[in-house]
Design goal:
Number of domains: 2
Strand content: under 5%
Largest sheet: none
Distance between the termini: 47 Å
Oligomer: single chain
Number of strands: 0
């Protein structure tokens, strides 16, 4: 895969910066809220904690050949993209605990089934659901 850089698009990048970095505070607030849910509810449900370090890695900013702004961008992307992957894992573990039913498949379905749905019960399988809910 070839990776591209876009030095001629500096103006566009500058215009988009407030939209990219403007969500930083809501993302940190969301991080705190989801982490509180994770740390309080998972033990109550008997679900093992999800390891943040498996999903969030911020190391590219240490590369000496990056500019200061590129280092900031790398920190941001490492945190935000890793954080969202971590959130998806927490949500997936929660969904396994509470539901474990696959979504309905339709003709020409473009829905991308999450990997954690692999072991879920088939949509409409009441017998499997009743057996699962009595465990």
């Amino acid at each position: 895969m070839k990776y591209k850089r876009y030095p001629t698009r500096a103006g566009r990048h500058l215009l988009s910066a407030p939209f990219i970095y403007g969500v930083s505070i809501p993302i940190v607030i969301l991080d705190i809220a989801i982490e509180m849910y994770h740390r309080i509810c998972f033990p109550l449900y008997g679900i093992p904690y999800v390891s943040r370090t498996k999903y969030i890695r911020m190391d590219r900013h240490k590369l000496s050949y990056l500019t200061g702004m590129e280092k900031i961008n790398c920190l941001y992307c490492g945190y935000v993209n890793g954080l969202f992957a971590y959130f998806v894992q927490i949500a997936g573990e929660t969904e396994k605990y509470w539901c474990s039913i696959k979504h309905n498949k339709t003709i020409n379905d473009t829905f991308t089934e999450p990997a954690h749905h692999q072991d879920f019960m088939e949509y409409g399988d009441e017998k499997a659901y009743r057996e699962h809910s009595t465990e």
